[in-house]
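Quick one:
INPUT:
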């Protein structure tokens, strides 16, 4: 009798666990510079990569990021991509920026010397999870860009 009761109870718990559906996990997104190209007018074409680590789709509403090269201010990036990115996926947003004089000088020096450049992105990303409310995340990302062979003025 006890064995039968235990078996029925275990089966009930197993069936209940199966009916809950997929887990909806919302994780902190990230942003990084995929490519930066210096234009002939001195402005920058920036490809900002937005990464969604959540198990559900998210709509990326706004990015407000400071770009620093070797810990010196370089530019302010403000975009409102309105971009839906699927679960555990990434996409790229293109923007044109006017750099600060110190950023322009630092990137010109790196390109002239054929060297890479360390950068930091800091600021915030606002995104809305599928069927959820908009949330803002503080972002701080450190990485580096290197000159792209065959593409003058471009770093990846």
């Amino acid at each position: 009798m006890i064995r039968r009761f235990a078996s029925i109870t275990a089966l009930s718990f197993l069936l209940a666990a199966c009916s809950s559906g997929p887990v909806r996990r919302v994780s902190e997104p990230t942003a990084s510079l995929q490519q930066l190209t210096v234009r002939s007018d001195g402005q920058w074409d920036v490809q900002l990569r937005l990464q969604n680590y959540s198990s559900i789709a998210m709509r990326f509403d706004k990015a407000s990021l400071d770009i620093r090269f070797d810990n010196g201010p370089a530019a302010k990036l403000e975009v409102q991509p309105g971009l839906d990115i699927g679960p555990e996926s990434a996409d790229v947003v293109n923007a044109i920026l006017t750099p600060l004089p110190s950023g322009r000088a630092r990137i010109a020096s790196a390109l002239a010397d054929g060297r890479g450049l360390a950068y930091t992105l800091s600021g915030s990303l606002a995104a809305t999870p599928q069927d959820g409310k908009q949330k803002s995340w503080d972002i701080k990302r450190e990485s580096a860009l290197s000159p792209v062979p065959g593409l003058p003025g471009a770093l990846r």
